[in-house]
Structure formats: structure tokens, C-alpha cells
User: What shape does this take?
Amino acid sequence: MRMETINMDANIETSKQVETPKITARNVDVFYDDMQALHDVSVDIPDRMVTAFIGPSGCGKSTFLRCINRMNDTIPICRVSGDIILDGEDIYDPRIDPVQLRARVGMVFQKPNPFPKSIFDNVAYGPSIHGLARDKTELEEIVEKALRRAAIWDEVKDRLKTPGTGLSGGQQQRLCIARAIATRPEVLLMDEPCSALDPIATAQIEELIQDLSSRFSVVIVTHSMQQAARVSQRTAFFHLGHLVEFGNTDDIFTRPTDSRTEAYITGRIG
Amino acid sequence: METQPTTIELVQASLTRRRRKERFLKGFGLGAICFAFMMLAILIISLVASGHSAFVQTHVTFEVFVDPEEIREKRLPRGGFDDALTASLGRHLTGLDLSDRATKKQVEKILSNGAQFHLRDLVVADPSLIGQTIELTVPVSDPYDQLHKGGIDPETPEEHRRLNDQQIQMFHQLVDAGIVSKPLNWGLIANADSRFPELAGLKGALIGSAWALLVCFLISFPLGIGAAIYLEEFAPKNRFSNLIEVNINNLAAVPSVVFGLLALSVFIGWFGLPRSAPLVGGMTLALMTMPTIIIATRAALKSVPPSIREAALGLGASPQQTVFGHVLPLAMPGILTGTIIGLAQALGETAPLLLIGMNAFITSAPDGPLASATALPTQIFIWADSPERGFASRTSAAILVLLGFLITMNAIAIFLRNKFERKW
Assistant: This one.
């Protein structure tokens, strides 16, 4: 492990000339019991950009995403080895509290999952448990700002007290995004955020993702290659638990270096 | 050459068979439900038929002269209250020689034994009543109560009935005088137990049951929910937690008499808690209710969608905040339903209470959880064992009261479930 850390530092040195990565993963293996879901994944995720993870079902892209905020901790049979560095800190260090980590790395899930509470309470929950607001006025400001940034403020400003579960699917997902960004995370993870939405709602969310990437590092898992091409600047292609190729989105879609990537983006495997 | 049957023909042929099976299944289910309803109807009808007469009680209302000769202020609370009653009631009866002791006894026995104590209490409370005439409504004794309710057939040969011709004739004089009434029997709820059926009521049993259920709830609800939350949300899934789970399921199926024996040796034997106390009863019932609550709570927690947990954890809520802030509120309707059903079971439980002595004969309502008391089911048990005719109808009436409470509790469970059920 120590050896690898040194190697990794060397890697960071070389890539610093281009940009400082927000998240650096080195040699990440993930096991579910005896089944290995991820093999030796190493990737640098840049700050203030959208990184897309693509690949066929069961390729490990969601598993890797959930490693970044340690959501895999909730699965007892899941084991993670290797290093994931967020701003120079190993997030799997025993001194790191996953609760604190998840306040820094927000997550939006595949299926919109608002709490069965009011719209206001949904967004206010994160800031209030982390003590981000000193008083009620400040909390209201945070909620409004998050809802505005999630492009849903105009639709819900008159019914903040109504249940979040009463919104449409697309609105619910934007509410969940507002909820996630209300805690002012540094990284936003999105696990197929549009898979349950219609094309109009999808377009709204995609626009929102572009917008958010000016402030956060956004990592999005998607099944749609068009979506990856539209919203992301970096793309990682996963296949059978391996990170096959990682690079600029334009390069991946126009000049893939690996034959498997080419096969996937041209629709021959997947 | 024989033509192959087409798909449609094959489907048609199998369809008749499938429909027949479906009809059979439907009919069987419907039959089972009808049978269950019939049994329930028989139960209720027979209880109402034998118990309805206990909901009214024959009373006699008459002027009582509080004779200063018999009752003297200095001798209170002792005095000849029975003589005063007999003398006053005797004025409504003709052709009787009240100076004859046997006749006097006959007249005295028309009234409930409690009548003299009722009069005594009135006079003790207000000694100025001595020398006055007051109107009094008191219950008649059980045989006359039965006679008035049609429980004694005057056509039966005299030696086979509890009242002879003279007694019946006396009572008819009272009825003809218009002083016999049959009001609603509030004593059934307002009185404690008594040797005399016309005075016996459920007050002691109701209060005893209430205390026992309160103790049972206070112990089993927090402990049951705590255990369920730990097992469902925090415990590692290994062989040890599996063992615990199997044992909890087994505990729910342990015969209640075993819990009674346990309570007898531990709570009464070791801890030295008093016998017949609702506190001990409640603790025993809590042992039985806890597995039910744990199982219901775990099922309710399990039914909360994992996406809610993920949402909370993903925002940086700690596991404890996730459970108490999000999972538990959503599971609450299921937990409450399970708890109330567990408590309803506890309310009807008899065997463990018999073992810890809650079937004692106690003529006053308990004034606390440590006082001796009976509970509703044990009171039914005591009354069912009593030979007096009046207790037969009172037993049925007590069962109806118990069923009433059970139905109310289940209705509350359904109401809570519907009220707090939320969509997600």
C-alpha cells in the first residue's frame, strides 16, 4: 500500500501540469463476498467538470460511483481495497467519518426518492442536520438558493409546505438534486438520474448538470451514450469490472483507442 | 390422415378444466368465510342470549322509615338497618305477620344483602336522616331478579324451584304495587366483585386489566421497538443474530402458561413482588407481548423502502438520524398496529394471570398497580365457576364487555393504520 502511495504521488505530479484532479482513484478493487465487481480501477476525476461513466449493465460503474461517498459501507458483504483520494485525503482512512464525507460528496439516485415530507423540509434536512444555518431565515435562504439552482424554484415556491412526493417524476428528481446541493457538497454523484424520466424532464436535468459543473465536480453514471456525449467533458468506459478507457469525451466518442470501447459506442456490445 | 388440433382448440379444451379449478377454489374460500362467520354469529348470539339479562337489574323502590328505635346515632355505624328495611318493605305486603321471625326473614331475603349496607352508608354520611322517611332504590336478591326476568318458571313443581309459592306471591304483590323496576345495570361496571350476583360488577377487573395493560405497554413497547431496531438496522447478519431471530419467533409461540410459571418463580419468588398485583400481571403479559411487537416492528421496518435510507445516508445523516428521522416514522403505523394487536392478545390472556393469583376474590377495586386485583378474563373465569344462577348471565355479559374492548382496540389499530399510512 505504501509503495502504491508513492507511485500515486508521482502520478499526481505528472497530471498536475494539466489540472489538479478532485478525486484520484488508484488500484480500486471491489468485492461482493467472493465475487469481484471491480478490477484495479485507477482514474482521475477533474474538478468543475462533468465526468460520465458509461458501460453495459453490470459493468461496475454504479459500484465505483458508490465507492466515492462510501455508500457501499451500507452493504455488509461489500469490500473495497485500493485508494480513493479526495483533495489529498484517503476517504477510506479509518479516521475519516463517512457521515462527514457524505456531506462533502452529495449523491442523486436513479429513482427520485424525496422524503415523505414537505418540499421545504426535504431541502432543509441536510443543512439542518449539519448545522449549516444559524437561524430560520438563513435556512430559508439556503433552501431557496438550492431550489433556484436546481431550476425548480418557480414551480414550487408557492407550495413549499406540500409533500415532495406529490410532485411529478422530473420535479421530484430536481428536488432531490436541490436537496443534495443544499449541503454545499464539493462533488455531486449522480447514478443514472434520468433513467426514470421523460425526454423533456431529462433535457431540464441535463441543462442543470451543465450549470452545476461550474461549481462542483459532477460524476454521472448513464446508460445513454448520447447523454454522456451531451453533458460530459470526461468519459470513462467500464466493461466487466474493468476501466477500459478514460479520456476526453470527444476523444472517446470519435477516436476510441480500445476495440471494446469502439464496439460499445457503435452498438456491437452492451 | 388425422389433422393436428389447432392451438385454439387445445386452449379451449384446457380452459374448461382451468375454469373448474378456479370455481372450486373460489367456492372453497367463500365456504370457509361463511363457516367462520357462522361460528362467530353463533358465539355472539349465544352470549347475547344468555348475557343480555345481566345488563338490567331488578330494583325495588320504596319509602324507608329510618326508625330511631332501631338506629341510634350513638351506635353508628352499627344498628338494625335490615330491620328498618324489612319493616318498611313489609308495609307493601298484605297478610303477613312481621312479628314472626321466619316471615320477617322471608321479607328480608327479597332485598339484596347489599341493601342494608347501602342504607347504612347513607345514614352514616348524614345522621340527620334518622327519624325521617327516605325513598330508596335497592337491588332485589338474585332469585327474585331471576323470577322477574323470567328465569324461574312458576309451573315447575315447588320443590324444584328456588322460590316457593309464598315467596312468588309476595313478589307479585310488590310488582302490583308498581315499585319494582328493571333499570340498566350500571352496577355491572361500577361495582367491584361480590359474593352476591346482584351486586357483583366488573369495576375491579376493569381497573386491574387497565393497570396490567398499562404496565405491559410501558415495558413491552420501548423494549420491543428497541430490540427490533437493533436487530433490523444495526445488528450484523451472522449466525448469532439468526439464532436470536429464531428464538424470538419461538418465544411468540410459547404457551402462555409457561410465562405464568416463569413470573411466579421470578417476579413473585425472587423479586418478592406481591401476588395478585396488576404490576406482576403486566410484567408477565409484557413478556408475551414483546415477541409480537418485535416481529411486527421488524416487518414494518423492513417494508420501508431502502431508497429512503439511501437518501438520508447520502445526505450525510448518521445511521441513528436515518432510523429515528425517517425510517421509524414511516414504520410507525405498522408498529402501532402490531402493538395494539399484541395488547389485545394480552387483554384476553388468562392462564398466566391465574398462576400469579389474579383470580383471587377481591371485593374492592385496586387503588394502584400493587394492590390485589383481578383482570377481565380471570373475572370471567371466577364467575363461570360460581354456582349462583345470576353469575351465569353475568359471565356472558362480562365476555361481551371483554369482546367489546377487544373490538374497540382492533378498531383503533385499523384507524391508526389508515390515518398514519403515507405514500412514498
In short: Chain A touches chain B at residues 69, 71, 74, 76, 99-103, 106-107, 109, 111, 113-116, 125-126, 129-130, 165, 176, 179-180, 183 (CB under 8 Å). DSSP finds eleven helices and ten strands in chain A. Strands of chain A lie at 21-32, 35-46, 50-54, 78-86, 89-90, 105-108, 187-191, 217-221, 234-239, 242-248.
